[in-house]
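ARCHIVE CARD
Drawer: 12
Card no.: 0347
Subject: one protein chain, sequence and derived structure
Cross-reference: see card 0346
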Amino acid sequence: DLKVEVYGPIVLHHPVFQGCHQVAPNAIKKILRKGVTEVTLKSGQELRAIYEEKATTSKKHAHRCEVKRLLFVIFGTLEYHCDDSEDHEAKVVQGEWALEGALWLE
């Protein structure tokens, strides 16, 4: 299966998927086949499909982000931030992942 061959080595860098693969190799294949979607971005292009902004009653943050997907960076660098503040940005480079909270939170 092409997705398993292409994305398996990338996804298996993540400790959760490494553990899953050791315990149930067929489960990881199913995750790769059904749960992986490739997204290509141009330089400067925003990817908003990975989170939803939610209104909040917090005075400190008028909005909060609800992350929907874990991201793996295959080529280039991804810069992301949840609000317009430059103080809350992160850069993720090739081979790293971002937004891991999508694995743990609903």
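Annotation on reverse: The first strand starts at residue 51 and ends at 55. The longest helix spans residues 25-35.
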